[in-house]
Every structure is written in C-alpha cells, then in structure tokens.
Design goal:
- Helices cover about 70% and strands about 0% of the residues.
- By secondary structure, the chain is mainly α.
- The chain starts with a helix and ends with a helix.
- The relative contact order is 0.09.
C-alpha cells in the first residue's frame, strides 16, 4: 500500500510541475464520486463488454 501512495505523490508532483491543479480526495469524496459514476458512466461502460463489466466489479470491490 505504501508504494502505491508513494506513486500517487510522485504523479501528483509531475502534474503540478506541468501546471495542473491537483486535489487530494478523502474517502467520503471518493465514495460520493463512485455512487454517481456507478449510476452513469459505469452503467454505460459496463454494458459494452463482459470484460468492461468485470473490471467495474473489481473496481467496486476495492475499499476506499
């Protein structure tokens, strides 16, 4: 888990150096985003192929 967090920090720094605005999302915000995405974009994407549907299921199972 620590390596993934280190990667997140490194990627954020790359984007900031390029002039992008980077925001840190807390667990509550990520959860709200998932709820909205699940009923909109994920629904459409999941209907495209069985692989798409499986990827979204796997993403849903990742704890926030």
């Amino acid at each position: 888990m620590r390596r993934a967090q280190d990667d997140d920090i490194e990627v954020a720094q790359v984007y900031q150096k390029a002039g992008a605005r980077v925001s840190i999302l807390d667990a509550a915000t990520v959860s709200q985003w998932r709820d909205i995405a699940r009923d909109t974009a994920w629904k459409d994407y999941g209907a495209k192929t069985p692989t798409s549907s499986n990827l979204l299921k796997l993403a849903s199972d990742v704890p926030v």
